UniProtKB/TrEMBL annotation:
It holds the Pfam family Rubredoxin. Belongs to the rubredoxin family. InterPro entries: Rubredoxin-like_dom, Rubredoxin_dom, Rubredoxin_ET, Rubredoxin_Fe_BS. PANTHER family: RUBREDOXIN, RUBREDOXIN-1-RELATED. Its cofactor is Fe(3+). Keywords: Electron transport, Iron, Metal-binding, Transport. One of its GO terms (molecular function) is electron transfer activity. Gene3D superfamilies: 2.20.28.10. This is Rubredoxin. The keyword Iron applies.
Length: 72
């Protein structure tokens, strides 16, 4: 079992609201569903849980599980 960091969605996309913004814990890049991801050609309105399995941080190439939910 791998340890997860506090604030993580623990790999369970159902724990994330569709409009939740998530921040990479490595480089602080924020994935905002309202904006999508131009680098990976992800359309605006795409929830984090709906990103393709191969998606990685467009800034530092970190894994999806390196993202944590941003509390607004």
């Amino acid at each position: 079992m791998s340890a997860r960091f506090e604030g993580s969605y623990l790999g369970d996309g159902s724990r994330i609201a569709p409009d939740s913004r998530l921040e990479c814990k490595i480089c602080w890049h924020i994935y905002d569903p309202a904006e999508g991801d131009e680098v990976w050609q992800i359309e605006p309105g795409t929830a984090f849980a709906d990103l393709p399995d191969h998606w990685r941080c467009p800034n530092c190439d970190g894994d999806r599980d390196q993202f944590m939910v941003v509390d607004d």
